[in-house]
Amino acid sequence: MNLKNRIFTILTIISLFSLLLSCSKSSDPVPEVDRTGNYFGSLSVYLDGKFVSTTNNAQLSIVGTNKKGEVSILTAVSVTLKATISGNTITIPRTVTSQVSQISMTEYGGGTFNGTTLTIEINQELQPTGSPATRLRYSFVGKK
I need a labelling partner for 16 at 20 to 30 A (CA). Which of 2, 22, 36, 42 fits? Predict the structure, then answer.
């Protein structure tokens, strides 16, 4: 191989190596979106699967906790709920949130974020001992 070909080969390798390095991923972390805050919108109420009413000036608040990914949800229609957020999804695990005498209340649900809009459903089951549960569902759509 003559000198001209060697120089060309070395320059080609250096160029390819430089191109490879310039295309590598950035080490800067992608900033997380802050989902906490107050959301204002409409809240529809369903009792045992049947529509009851809609309120157009409802508020739902999402408050951060000291655990990463966990939040508290505050509404006028539920006990304080714990939830987790992963990406654009919020999940409320099935939890007995109160128990008084012979009645317990279980809450659960979930929803999604789309930009500044939150769509979420909160389910409540009121279970008197020895009786069928009464089921309430709250559908909320609001903007931050």
Answer: 2
Tokens of 92: 């409320």
24-67: per-residue pLDDT in tens? Answer: 555 555 556 788 999 999 999 999 999 999 999 999 999 999 88
* 87-43-111 Cα angle (round to 5): 20
Gap between the Cα atoms of 55 and 66, Å rounded:
32
pTM equals: 0.73
Three-class HEC string of the chain: CCHHHHHHHHHHHHHHHHHHHHCCCCCCCCCCCCCCEEEEEEEEEEECCEEEEEEEEEEEEEEECCCCCEEEEECCCCCCEEEEEECCEEEEEEEEEEEECCEEEEEEEEEEEECCEEEEEEEEEEEECCCCCEEEEEEEEEEC
